[in-house]
Amino acid sequence: MTSLTSSLHTPSASHGAYIQHQIERAIDALMASLPDPKGLTGNQRRGIIARYSAVLEGNFIYWMTAAYLSVKSEEARSIIAENLHEEVRDCHPGMLRKFAIAADAVPTDSDALAVYRELTDVRLFLGRLSAVPSVITMAFFEGFIQGFMDFLAELATDQGSLELEYTEVHGVCDIAHTQGLYRALNAEMAVNLPQPGTNLFEGVELLTALIRTIVPAAKSTKTYPANAHSIVHGARGNAKIARLTKAEA
Ligand SMILES: [Fe+2]
Questions:
Q1: Distance from the alpha carbon of residue 87 to the mean position of ligand 1, in angstroms
Q2: Is residue 247 in a domain?
Q3: Distance between CA atoms of 145 and 53, rounded to whole angstroms?
């Protein structure tokens, strides 16, 4: 990220596509480092689901609200409001809690403590309400979550759970949410550029560190197969939407 940060010392509205590309690269790198679920013990599977829940259940809507409060452009506000509307209306935190209960992975106090420091860092960062870096962070988060769903579903299934509404819904709706946040980013950059020298990817770096506490990188070369996870961007994402829409019909 260092070379990227310095190359964007003076961000301009034309940097949107480049930033999106860097976010996608960061997501792909994180996905490529996931361990192979088949090599995990029951305790490790439970821990990943529990820490994921400890982070997402109470913070996702709060952090998206921080992005909403930070942006100034009408288009970015309306895109993020729509995202929040869906989260609240369809009770996504409740969906995640059901998922964790069914996988026998409700977060304990030690799960909350395991993520505490890195979680606090993300909270404080988003609390600065810096518009463009906040939208970049949430676009990265949405894109990662979407790609992570197949992995998370596999952990739950291996735990003996059949409750997959959370992973199925987010494997699909977060494709559109990620694309929406890229549009919000471009809209915001057209009217509200960050100060020169701002590290646009600070939130991506902090969130990556937090995700690492949820799911440590694979220690060996035995990683999650690259073709097993969906890609948020491009033709493979669209193919996944088509496949799931067909399956639901
Ligand atoms: Fe959600």
A1: 5
A2: no
A3: 12
The domain tally of the chain equals 1
Measured in whole angstroms, the distance separating CA 193 from the mean position of its chain's CA atoms is: 23
**CATH number (domain holding residue 139):** 1.20.910.10
pLDDT tens for 128-185 read: 999 999 999 999 999 999 999 999 999 999 999 999 999 999 988 888 899 999 999 9
Say how many Å lie between the CA of residue 220 and the centre of ligand 1: 31
With respect to residue 246, please indicate whether it lies within any of the assigned structural domains: no
Enclosing domain of residue 40: 2-241
Alpha-carbon gap, residue 186 to 229, rounded angstroms:
27
Q: Above 80 in pLDDT, residue 13?
A: no
CA–centroid distance, residue 92 to ligand 1 (Å):
5
Lookup: tokens for 64 = 């998206």
**What is the 210 CA–ligand 1 centroid distance (Å)?**
18
User: In angstroms, rounded to a whole number, what is the distance separating the alpha carbons of residues 102 and 245?
Assistant: 25
Instruction: Quote the ligand 1 centre to 173 CA distance (angstroms).
Output: 8
Q: Ligand 1 centre from 165 Cα, in Å?
A: 11
| DSSP label of 15 | G
Centre of ligand 1 from the C-alpha of residue 59, in Å: 11
In a domain, 80, yes or no: yes
Question: Which segment of 84-88, 194-198, 228-232 scores lowest on mean pLDDT?
Answer: 228-232
Distance 166 CA to ligand 1 centre (A): 8
Specify the pTM. 0.87
In a domain, 183, yes or no: yes
